[in-house]
Design a protein that fits this description.
Elements (H helix, E strand, L loop, with lengths): L1 E10 L6 E10 L5 E7 L7 H18 L5 E6 L4 H4 L2 E2 L2 E2 L18 H9 L7 H18 L5 H13 L4 E8 L1 E2 L2 E4 L4 H11 L3 E4 L8 H15 L10 E9 L5 H17 L17 E3 L3 E5 L4 E5 L6 E2 L4 E7 L10 E4 L4 E6 L4 E2 L4 E6 L15
Parallel strand pairs: 3-4, 3-7, 7-11, 9-10, 10-12
Antiparallel strand pairs: 1-2, 2-4, 5-6, 8-18, 9-11, 13-20, 14-16, 14-19, 15-18, 16-17, 18-20
Length: 379
């Protein structure tokens, strides 16, 4: 059993800039499985840092007492580049400033990168095929040119996550209930995880269209299975984004609660030995992501919400009043912003000034919405 510090240097995009990525590798020498966890990929979302900082002592103790059957790789603050984007006294953290790219968008489609190198190499043995695919991914990661600081960081992260059986990316929303984004193939494990975390919703999509980090790993195996139907391909890893409530929900109580829930889930999966706590019996709702309405405004204004987090609304019900700031009668009266589906109010905005096209709420319904299209992320 062992605990290893992981330290990776990231060269900045300009002179005088050098950043460290810090994490831990914890567990037995010959683990049966591998778990990868990271927080604050969107660096302005810090509940994940608190949760994983609270989880680490539990993992250290489990390692000391030989209770880990899996290797755990943990990066509580996986985006030191974003943590450094403080400008005019305000922390940004969501976008890479040199490129303008969202830190959780446009991650590489690994199957497209390795498809040609797999032809003629796969066998009739699923274990051998897993090794072949993973070795091909690692070879691409090690030989591809990753020049910018953002891409150096991505390579370092992918080299730690590419062979994991569980990949959990911890985020948060603005003002929000706890919820999970995942792929439909993970539903049984995600239902268990959701029950441990007392999540209010699990939203599923095989490909939400934005190249988010959590979708990289299952899509590799799902696309390989589609491309090579005559060869057995392993089941994809259990991968998800966990939205740990809102941005301001950071504190010891939240961290301990989330860490204990994650620890219990991993125990229930046989990755940590010892007595487990029984999770809640009531099952979390699992719905397709395209059944969630992202409610937006068509002009600038000041919001006055008529609903609260956790409310159930009906189609046409008023979610907010929008006080106009310009036009024929600025500041006089209001426009009603109404729900376009029946569903649960999952998240709203803390900032009540909104501009044209700004999202103001997520409403989790049960019926897929044609208006959602192929790009399902809020951005």
């Amino acid at each position: 059993m062992a605990v290893e510090r992981i330290i990776t240097e990231i060269r900045g995009d300009g002179p005088g800039r050098l950043t460290e990525l810090n994490g831990y590798r914890i567990g037995p020498v010959n683990p049966v499985k591998k778990v990868y966890l990271q927080g604050a990929l969107h660096a302005d979302e810090q509940p994940g840092i608190m949760a994983l900082s609270s989880l680490l002592p539990l993992l250290f103790e489990a390692d000391r007492t030989n209770q880990l059957t899996a290797e755990f790789v943990v990066f509580p603050m996986v985006n030191p580049l974003g943590m450094g984007t403080v400008e005019f006294g305000m922390h940004q953290g969501r976008y890479d400033l040199p490129s303008g790219v969202n830190f959780n968008r446009d991650w590489p489609d690994l199957f497209l990168r390795i498809e040609q190198n797999l032809k003629g190499k796969l066998t009739d043995n699923v274990t051998e095929n897993r090794t072949i695919i993973l070795n091909t991914v690692r070879s691409w990661l090690e030989t591809e040119q990753f020049v910018s600081a953002r891409m150096q960081l991505r390579r370092a992260v992918m080299l730690e996550a590419y062979d994991a059986d569980y990949v959990f990316d911890l985020h948060c929303d603005d003002l929000s209930l706890l919820h999970i984004f995942s792929s439909p193939h993970c539903n049984p494990q995600m239902e268990s995880l959701g029950n441990w975390l007392s999540a209010d919703a699990i939203l599923t999509a095989e490909d939400s269209g934005g190249g988010s980090f959590d979708e990289v790993w299952p899509l590799l195996w799902l696309r390989a299975a589609d491309a090579f139907p005559n060869h057995p391909i392993p089941v994809p890893p259990a991968a998800c984004t966990i939205e740990l409530r809102g941005q301001n929900d950071v504190g010891h109580e939240f961290g301990q609660r989330d860490a204990t829930a994650l620890f219990g889930f991993f125990q229930s999966e046989g990755l940590i030995l010892g007595e487990t706590v029984i999770p809640p019996k009531e099952n979390v709702r699992i719905t397709p992501l395209n059944a969630t309405e992202i409610l937006r405004v068509d002009r600038a204004g000041l919001l006055d919400y008529q609903v609260h987090l956790g409310d159930w609304v009906k189609t046409g019900e008023v979610v907010a009043h929008l006080i106009p700031l310009e036009g024929e009668q600025p500041f006089v009266g209001y426009r009603e912003i109404c729900a376009g589906t029946d569903g649960l109010v999952l998240s709203i905005n803390s900032n009540k000034y909104v501009w044209q096209g700004r999202s103001i709420a997520k409403i989790v319904g049960n019926t897929p919405l044609a208006s959602r299209g192929d790009y399902l992320l809020e951005d």
